[in-house]
Write a structure and sequence with these properties.
Mean pLDDT of chain B: 86
Strand content of chain A: under 5%
Number of helices of chain B: 16
Strand content of chain B: under 5%
Distance between the termini of chain A: 40 Å
Strand order of the largest sheet of chain A: 1-2
Number of strands of chain B: 2
Radius of gyration of chain A: 19 Å
Distance between the termini of chain B: 36 Å
Largest sheet of chain B: 2 strands, antiparallel
Shape of chain A: globular
Low-confidence stretches of chain B: none
Helix content of chain A: over 70%
Radius of gyration of chain B: 20 Å
Low-confidence stretches of chain A: none
Structural class of chain B: mainly alpha
Shape of chain B: globular
Mean pLDDT of chain A: 89
Number of strands of chain A: 2
Number of helices of chain A: 12
Oligomer: heterodimer
Largest interface: A-B, 42 and 43 residues
Chain lengths: 291, 310
């Protein structure tokens, strides 16, 4: 497409708004992978589960997406805690995380994706609410509410996770676990319980991100694969365990994808996140906010 | 092999197709295991290396047709070099970064192919099977008077490739490379301190593993005659090549073979009787069940029995 500053500014605004949503997807990976050292590549599978739960709630009970978040996120939290217990019992305890644990998450990702195909089919599913259909004008760029809502919720999620981790006792225990498990044990706190709670939070964020996803666009099962790349690219670029890093990296990825889509077409957009991930791993594996 | 050749005219084409698929997975599972099982580095991008093999054949077939054997060699070289490059760039980091990078590699390659109209882009491309070369045909006619069909030829090619792959894995396992890789898998820092050249060993394993995966992909276009990126980069390939060694057992050369035969035949039966989506679902469930209940795979179960009897 021909170059023009209008298009660039439009793409940057779209990218920033999109980046806020990506932050909601990546925060769970930052918690699980960055802080707990659990390589949860099944994170997008939990997200897609959230999207289909929101669809189910909207179709059968007329749930507003916000009602879905309030109902399903706590379920995700409880599921996440149980899931971490099973993971700890079968893999972490035995010291099998590196091969078997990784393959386990890959298997879970696969089971959820095929399971969704078996239940819902491969058709696109979407939800709509009147207030999501309107558009808000900011100068000469206009942003639809169905983009703005996920952006705002994503920023809110990042803020609340940050506050929780820095202000509460359990939150600080989680941060301590991410730095030195032995030291946490020595001061008498239970690292396993802290990890369990943190993983529950990570899954709950994935469920909310899924609801946000189906607000933005129609959803089909294989969409999970693109989001593995996005979530891990953001997490690594942001310095793995850093919440401000996650935010900055999300915005960078969002803008990079929006610019690519505008000037080269949407067929190149999957390569942006993975390309960014490969480049980060090659040139600066510690990420921009890494220690 | 002799049996399939003799029974040739009496066995339906379907059995050849099923056999080909299982053999292909023996090669892929064995190739994955050289790095993943022996060295402990999980490669999620098998489909990417497999597709490099497919598209090497397609490109060569378009610009400079040559016997399949040379196309397979070219595929091995290309996929091996990509493996070496990826390994060189990411194997110095923690193991999980290599895994994530291989996942990324497969998607980047798929995006490149989707946007590359010379090889058909997202629409895919039809491939015409070349005739079997005269010398080879004369050799087969010696055994089977009526000659053989192209599918039968491909099945025999795959038998040879599977034997080659298993032999290569066996050689790695029994040599100093395998011992070094096992030391890396158990404790990389300790291995390095004791003088194991860990980066070099990991690069050898990654290159071999990638080259074998590429070779497995090279005949695929002639087998299906129509290739699109969704097939060549299929999720089924990535999942199966991980599931088969882990279900069979990763410590020995025969684990992946057992896993490939078990899972491969189960899938063929399920595809015929239920549906292809359901059979992939069952592979995923089996993978998770084995990982949690029998982390050493079938090999581990068999060894447990033997120990129990003594």
């Amino acid at each position: 497409m021909e170059f023009s500053w209008d298009l660039v500014i439009n793409a940057i605004v779209t990218g920033i708004v999109l980046g806020g949503f990506y932050a909601s997807v990546a925060i769970g990976v930052t918690i699980a992978f960055g802080m707990l050292d659990i390589v949860n590549i099944a994170h997008p599978a939990f997200m897609i589960a959230g999207a289909y739960l929101a669809f189910l709630g909207w179709e059968s009970f007329g749930f507003d997406p916000f009602v879905s978040m309030a109902v399903f996120a706590p379920c995700g939290y409880l599921f996440g805690r149980a899931f971490y217990r099973a993971y700890h019992f079968f893999f972490e305890r035995r010291g099998d995380e590196s091969i078997q644990g990784l393959a386990f998450f890959f298997g879970i990702l696969f089971i959820v994706e095929i399971g969704v195909v078996l239940v819902f089919g491969v058709d696109y599913r979407s939800i709509s609410e009147p207030y999501l259909e309107s558009t808000i004008g900011l100068g000469f760029v206009s942003v639809p509410w169905r983009m703005l809502v996920p952006f705002l919720v994503g920023l809110g999620m990042l803020g609340s996770v940050h506050l929780y981790l820095s202000r509460t006792f359990t939150g600080r225990t989680i941060l301590a676990v991410s730095q030195d498990v032995e030291a946490v044990r020595l001061i008498g706190a239970n690292p396993i319980r802290a990890k369990e709670i943190a993983f529950g939070i990570a899954v709950a964020t994935a469920i909310i991100a899924g609801v946000l996803l189906i607000i933005i666009q129609p959803v089909e099962p294989s969409i999970t694969r693109e989001y593995i790349g996005r979530a891990f690219a953001i997490c690594v670029l942001g310095g793995i365990a850093s919440i401000p890093g996650t935010l900055v990296a999300s915005l960078i990825l969002g803008v990079a994808e929006a610019l690519t889509t505008t000037f080269y077409g949407p067929s190149w957009s999957p390569a942006v996140s993975f390309g960014l991930l490969l480049l980060t791993l090659i040139f600066r594996p510690a990420g921009i906010f890494g220690r | 092999m002799a049996a399939t050749m003799l029974l040739g005219p009496y066995v339906s084409e379907y059995y050849y197709l099923a056999t080909y698929t299982i053999l292909q997975f023996i090669v892929l599972g064995t190739a994955w295991n050289i790095l993943g099982g022996y060295g402990g580095y999980v490669n999620f991008g098998t489909a990417g290396f497999f597709a490099i093999g497919c598209y090497t054949t397609i490109v060569l077939n378009k610009i400079f047709p040559m016997p399949l054997f040379f196309e397979m060699l070219a595929a091995a070289v290309t996929a091996g070099l990509v493996g070496l490059g990826t390994g060189y760039l990411t194997l110095r980091l923690r193991g999980v970064f290599f895994s994530i990078a291989t996942l990324a590699l497969a998607i980047v390659l798929q995006t490149l192919v989707v946007n590359w109209s010379f090889v058909g882009g997202a629409r895919g491309v039809y491939v015409i099977r070349p005739p079997i070369s005269g010398v080879l045909m004369a050799f087969f006619v010696f055994f089977v008077p009526n000659g053989i069909s192209y599918v039968q030829f491909l099945v025999m090619l795959m038998v040879a490739l599977a034997m080659f792959a298993v032999l290569a894995a066996w050689a790695v396992e029994k040599s100093w490379i395998g011992i070094g890789l096992a030391a890396i898998r158990d404790d990389e820092a300790a291995a390095e301190t004791s003088g194991v050249p860990s980066l070099r060993l990991k690069l050898i394993a990654t290159t071999m593993s990638g080259a074998l995966m590429g070779m497995a992909g090279a005949p695929f276009p002639y087998y299906v005659t129509y290739v699109d990126p969704a097939t060549a980069f299929g999720l089924a390939i990535a999942v199966n090549s991980i599931a088969m060694p882990l279900v069979g057992g990763t410590a020995t050369w025969w684990g992946p073979v057992v896993g490939a035969i078990l899972l491969g035949s189960a899938q063929q039966i399920l595809t015929v009787t239920i549906s292809s989506a359901a059979n992939l679902f069952i592979v995923g469930v089996l993978l998770v069940v084995f990982l949690t209940a029998a982390p050493r795979g079938v090999v581990g179960i068999v060894r447990g029995w033997k120990r129990g009897r003594k």
